[in-house]
């Protein structure tokens, strides 16, 4: 047999042993995190020796032991009695070796180590020594938010390029809650969001996918996880701020203004902050005697520049604004205003032009006077002719020569066409109904046929082929058609329709078709309505109103404020209508009022805010009552109430050998608490000892211990205050009690106390002090702080040379679980060292080069000689992490910790504290600060009890508003460095500040600009001579929001207001007021003299043209005494023989019935009206139709003979174009 055959046999034997020689073992998760109030699942499978298989039956019992392996003392669960101690159930099948268990109603007493025990039939009884540790947490863990760009994960501080595909992923453990938790996204400022959620191996994931744009720069996205527990909901959230880099974009408002000299403005926005240049005739421009350039930083990404040009540069130059950053270039060509040459002698030119203007006006007056005289003369003659002969009008349908123009009557007035009005999209709830609001229009030619009995409405889905796509008809519905009804009246052109029993089959686009018997069939194919069927009812909208103003749900509400919670939702066509109900966690009495407003169901919950409502969650639930089942959806809001401190009635003093007084206070924001003794503030000293305990985010308890010497003549007062008020309480100090009372009892107590103390010194037992959990970074080292005690009888043999310390992992069996010994370490042991001195009962140990193998529970064992060998049952759990844990960042304002979302007042003393554990790295880690955008930073670092702390101290200014400060910790390991970071965004509130660029520009009117920056966003008003100004005939005010804190307003003033008035720009917000007096130029009229002269010349030109037209139109011709003919025409066109023309108007409203006749006349001219319908019959023509609000031009002509000839010809011609309607004015 060769060596290879021997090896194969050995390997086969080992494999065979693993298959055939099973042993007792159990598979458990090392650590499980459970949320208080929910449930916890322990995934568990076990194995037994094969000779016990016959005893493992369906009647087997599973037992769980906690914090020990003693059945009588440590049993907390028995599958035969599920309510034994902990409520739960073994969900696995024990006879199949599955011991998976769920515990319900998790509370803090569930914390601990759990051992599984199997009890089968007969001799099968075994307790497994491997444990699973349950850690109960009161608050849910924050979800994890990750940023992916082009499907690659990046750090949240990394800049994202505009146009990139961005995915924000929020993930969290489901933690065995029922119903499962939900993940929701929100953003600040608010933008539309669309996410998709899924459950993947008990991890809940929500992805928010979009393409990055410059609108998302600086937006903070927040992911909130909500666990719906029995008593109340619990939430946790995490956020990420997106930083988008994009090429410059020049604002469309960039333009030039003509003042004394041309001034051009260019505004650009880009990230990184762009540069801006001016190019004149293609060459870059800098400051010189002919040009002046100024720049102003509007925001971190916004820049505005202005350039002032000498007039000599505006005639032949082109001006271009060019901006660029690392991502691109933008340019805009600006139109320079044209400037006229300045005259050498301004006064002489003005006088000359005024003289010319006066002459033109005189000439015009003479022309108009002559025209009026001729008109009056002609009018007298016409009146005489009308009195001599009875004149009437008759109508005749005829054609006219092509030179006559026609008057088009607009199609919208008399010619209706096919059209329909439909909603673009409709959302419908599965199982309910859906309403399609519908109105239509048809051609007016079919109006008379549109009757109630003859009209049919049809609906087609996803196409307009009636044979394939018809799903509904108002007459003779088919079995395969949708169930519904046209609720509108078709003969009134109302096609509103309702479909019942909506299912997913109703999804699609709907087209309407109208049929009037067999005469008209029309499908409205261009407009459609899309129905989207949803299975789940949409969440209602919940809004918070304080003093009738809407606020964000995270905003603090002041106690005593009038609060209104509004819940609103669409009715979605359910029958009966849905209902809105309110509930609260914890429960408090609620009273609401509901109403229906334009298909929106609204419920208001009105109350006055009190401290009892602080952190109460109000939930609004909408219930749709459908045929098969009800469907519900809900939304909630957490109320945060701020209130003055209130001292609890339980605050009191207790007298023992010393006097101890307790004071409990509740307030929001968290209150300060001080003790005053005889009116003076007390601190820790030899006679007083003060301690504080934070009971909750709003509750604080303080105790003071007083020496007896202070209790006789002193008065003690507890004083508490916050930003909303203060309170105090005077304490009654107990009088001294003589120790001589019951001397015998005191002596007995002293003896008992002495005995207990003596026992503590002389009667020691085995005990150990270990940290419960230790977190270690992979690649670094880990320190286990350890102190132990032994029974006093072993002290004599306990020496430095005889003592040995051992560490056992995941069990207490030395041969199986030993991983370290202080003497004679083995190659397979962990590399480490006991740094404490064992003979001084210090077992502190360090393990080096930590890897994932170090994960587990560690038990300490002490040996000394042959007598002392003891393994301690308390253990310490090491958790090895691959990534460095994030540091903690805290915000302190005036040395008080506040939430990072809270606004900081400008001028406040701000401290940002970053802290992190050192985690036993060989060279200590380092903390560094950075900011976005970058600003100078100065920090100080220190090490405090293995916690590394770095403080960033400064005074808050407006420049730090919305700046994100990032703290990065760097662990220097052997193979590579590992880093982690956390950040905080600072929000600074500050009084308004008016920009230095605020000024006035003189054109034909005065335009003044005022720009202001403040947080909260300021208001801006204009004051003229000390009085506030609003929009009027002399003033026009407009505002433009530049950013969330910047506002720009402009006011346009009439010149009459600029001589004696003073103009002031006034801005204010809650933190102060700013004002600036703006200098008005009194010489605007002189500065704009050339504009006035240009206007005068233009007026003169118009006057000359009017004079010429008047002369042509008024002067009569030679044959003005001939009989008169009247022709109505849209343009006043005439034949070649018409020589003189006068324009007037004809009103047909006063014609007498007897004057309307048919027939021809020798002396007739024509009134021409063109109708756009394209087909009117002779019987449809009437005087009423042609005179409906029509005023046409009338041509008075002396060429009667020509007109008579044309009249005869028109009577003999057939009716060719029925679209023209002619009216004759006949003389008899």
UniProtKB/TrEMBL annotation:
Domain Ig-like positions: 143-241, 248-337, 540-638, 645-734, 887-985, 992-1081
Record-linked InterPro entries: CD80_C2-set, Ig-like_dom, Ig-like_dom_sf, Ig-like_fold, Ig_sub, SIGLEC
GO molecular function: carbohydrate binding; sialic acid binding
GO biological process: one example: cell adhesion
Bilayer topology: Single-pass membrane protein
Top-rank taxon: Eukaryota
Keywords: Cell adhesion, Disulfide bond, Lectin, Membrane, Signal, Transmembrane, Transmembrane helix
Region (Disordered): 1205-1228
Subcellular location: Membrane
GO cellular component, one term: plasma membrane
One of the Pfam families matching this protein, by short name: C2-set_2
Signal peptide region: 1-21
Ranges that cross the membrane: 351-373, 1087-1109
Keyword Transport: no
Family to which the UniProt record says this protein belongs: Belongs to the immunoglobulin superfamily. SIGLEC (sialic acid binding Ig-like lectin) family.
Annotated protein name in UniProt: Ig-like domain-containing protein
Taxonomic lineage: Eukaryota, Metazoa, Chordata, Craniata, Vertebrata
């Amino acid at each position: 047999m060769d060596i290879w055959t021997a090896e194969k046999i050995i390997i086969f034997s080992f494999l065979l042993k693993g298959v055939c020689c099973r042993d007792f073992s159990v598979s458990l998760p090392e650590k499980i995190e459970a949320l208080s109030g929910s449930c916890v699942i322990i995934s568990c499978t076990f194995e037994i020796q094969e000779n016990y298989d016959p005893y493992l039956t369906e009647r087997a019992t599973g037992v769980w032991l906690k914090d020990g392996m003693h059945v009588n003392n440590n049993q907390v669960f028995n599958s035969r009695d599920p309510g034994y101690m902990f409520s739960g159930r073994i969900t696995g099948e024990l006879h199949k070796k599955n011991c998976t268990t769920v515990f319900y109603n998790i509370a803090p007493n569930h914390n601990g180590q759990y051992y599984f025990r199997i009890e089968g039939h007969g001799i099968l009884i075994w307790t497994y020594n491997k444990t699973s540790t349950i850690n109960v947490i009161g608050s849910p863990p924050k979800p994890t938010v990750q940023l992916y760009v082009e499907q690659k994960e990046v750090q949240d501080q990394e800049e994202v390029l505009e146009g990139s595909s961005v995915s924000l992923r929020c993930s969290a453990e489901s933690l065995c809650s029922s119903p499962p938790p939900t993940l929701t996204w929100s953003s600040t400022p608010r933008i539309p969001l669309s996410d998709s959620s899924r459950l993947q191996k008990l991890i809940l994931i929500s992805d928010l996918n979009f393409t990055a744009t410059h609108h998302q720069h600086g937006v903070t996205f927040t992911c909130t996880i909500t666990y719906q527990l029995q008593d109340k909901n619990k939430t946790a959230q995490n956020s990420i701020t997106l930083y988008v880099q994009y090429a410059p974009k020049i604002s469309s408002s960039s333009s030039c203004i003509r003042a004394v000299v041309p001034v051009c403005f260019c505004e650009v926005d880009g990230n990184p902050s762009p540069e801006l240049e001016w190019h004149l005739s293609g060459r870059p421009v800098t400051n010189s005697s002919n040009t002046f350039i100024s720049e102003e930083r509007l925001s971190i990404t916004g820049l505005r520049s202005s350039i002032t040009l000498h007039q000599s540069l505006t005639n032949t130059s082109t001006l271009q604004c060019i901006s660029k950053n690392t991502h691109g270039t933008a340019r805009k060509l600006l139109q320079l205003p044209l400037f006229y040459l300045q005259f050498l002698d301004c006064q002489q030119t003005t006088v000359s032009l005024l003289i010319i203007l006066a002459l033109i006006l005189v000439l015009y007056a003479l022309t108009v006077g002559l025209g009026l005289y001729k008109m009056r003369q002609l009018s007298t003659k016409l009146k005489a002719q009308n009195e001599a002969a009875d004149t009437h009008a008759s109508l005749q349908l005829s054609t006219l020569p092509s030179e006559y123009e026609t008057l088009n009557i607009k199609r919208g007035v008399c010619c209706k066409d096919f059209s329909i009005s439909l909603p673009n999209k409709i959302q419908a709830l599965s199982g309910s109904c859906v309403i399609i609001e519908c109105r239509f229009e048809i051609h007016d030619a079919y109006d008379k046929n549109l009757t109630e009995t003859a009209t049919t409405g049809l609906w087609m889905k996803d196409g307009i082929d009636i044979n394939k796509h018809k799903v509904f008809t108002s007459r003779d519905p088919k079995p395969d058609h949708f169930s519904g009804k046209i609720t509108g009246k078709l003969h009134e052109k109302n096609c509103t329709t309702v479909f019942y029993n909506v299912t997913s089959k109703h999804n699609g686009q709907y087209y309407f078709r109208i049929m009037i018997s067999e005469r008209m069939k029309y499908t409205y194919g261009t407009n459609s309505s899309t129905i989207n069927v949803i299975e789940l009812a949409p969440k209602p909208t919940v809004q918070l109103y304080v003093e009738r103003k809407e606020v964000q749900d995270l905003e603090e509400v002041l106690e005593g404020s009038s609060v209104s919670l509004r819940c609103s939702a669409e009715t979605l066509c359910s029958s009966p209508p849905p209902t809105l109900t309110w509930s609260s966690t914890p429960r408090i009495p609620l009273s609401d009022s509901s109403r229906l407003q334009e298909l929106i169901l609204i419920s208001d919950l009105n109350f006055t805010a009190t401290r009892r409502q602080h952190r109460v969650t109000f939930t609004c639930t909408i219930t749709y009552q459908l045929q098969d089942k009800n469907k519900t959806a809900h939304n909630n809001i957490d109320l945060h109430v701020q209130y003055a401190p209130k001292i609890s009635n339980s605050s009191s003093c207790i007298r023992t050998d010393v006097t101890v007084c307790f004071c409990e206070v509740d307030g929001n924001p968290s209150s300060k608490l001080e003790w005053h003794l005889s009116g003076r503030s007390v601190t820790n000293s030899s006679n007083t000892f003060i301690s504080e305990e934070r009971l909750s985010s709003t509750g604080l308890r303080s105790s003071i211990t007083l020496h007896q010497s202070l209790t006789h003549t002193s008065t003690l007062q507890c004083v508490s205050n916050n930003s909303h008020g203060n309170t105090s309480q005077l304490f009654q100090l107990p009088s001294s009690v003589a120790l001589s009372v019951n001397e015998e009892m005191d002596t007995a107590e002293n003896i008992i106390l002495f005995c207990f103390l003596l026992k503590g010194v002389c009667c020691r037992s085995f005990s150990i002090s270990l940290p419960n959990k230790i977190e270690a970074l992979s690649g670094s080292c880990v320190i286990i702080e350890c102190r132990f005690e032994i029974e006093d009888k072993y002290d004599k043999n306990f020496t430095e040379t005889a003592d040995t310390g051992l560490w056992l992992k995941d069990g207490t069996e030395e041969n199986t679980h030993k991983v370290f010994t202080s003497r004679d370490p083995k190659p397979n042991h962990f590399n480490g060292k006991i740094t404490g001195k064992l003979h001084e009962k210090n077992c502190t140990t360090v393990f080096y080069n930590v890897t994932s193998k170090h994960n587990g529970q560690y038990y300490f064992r002490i040996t000394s000689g042959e007598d002392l060998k003891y393994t301690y049952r308390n253990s310490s759990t090491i958790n090895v992490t691959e990534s460095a844990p994030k540091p903690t960042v805290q915000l302190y304002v005036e040395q008080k910790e506040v939430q990072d979302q809270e606004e900081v007042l400008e001028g406040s003393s701000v401290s940002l504290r970053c802290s992190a554990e050192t985690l036993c790295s060989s060279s200590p880690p380092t903390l560094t600060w950075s900011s976005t955008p970058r600003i100078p930073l100065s920090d100080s670092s220190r090490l405090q009890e293995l916690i590394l702390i770095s403080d960033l101290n400064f005074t808050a200014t407006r420049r730090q508003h919305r700046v994100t400060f990032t703290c990065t910790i760097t662990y220097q390991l052997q193979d590579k460095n590992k880093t982690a970071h956390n950040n905080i965004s600072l929000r600074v509130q500050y009084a308004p500040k008016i920009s230095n660029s605020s000024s006035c520009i003189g054109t034909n009117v005065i335009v003044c600009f005022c720009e202001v920056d403040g947080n909260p966003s300021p208001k801006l008003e204009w004051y003229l001579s000390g009085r506030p100004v609003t929009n009027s005939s002399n003033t026009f005010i407009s505002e433009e929001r530049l950013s969330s804190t910047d506002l720009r307003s402009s006011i346009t003033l009439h010149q009459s207001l600029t001589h004696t008035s003073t103009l002031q720009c006034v801005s204010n917000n809650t933190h102060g007021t700013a004002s600036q007096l703006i200098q008005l130029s009194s010489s605007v009229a002189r500065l704009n003299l050339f504009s006035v002269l240009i206007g005068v010349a233009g007026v003169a030109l118009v006057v000359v043209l009017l004079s010429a037209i008047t002369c042509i139109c008024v002067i009569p011709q030679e044959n003005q005494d001939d009989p008169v003919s009247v022709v109505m025409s849209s343009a006043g066109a005439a034949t070649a023989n018409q020589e003189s023309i006068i324009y007037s108007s004809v009103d047909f409203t006063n014609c007498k019935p007897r004057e309307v006749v048919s027939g021809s006349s020798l002396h007739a001219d024509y009134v021409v009206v063109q109708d756009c319908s394209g087909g009117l019959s002779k019987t449809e023509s009437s005087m009423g139709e042609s005179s409906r609000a029509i005023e046409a031009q009338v041509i008075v002509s002396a060429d009667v003979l020509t007109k008579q000839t044309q009249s005869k010809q028109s009577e003999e011609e057939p009716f060719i174009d029925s679209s023209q309607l002619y009216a004759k004015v006949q003389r008899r």
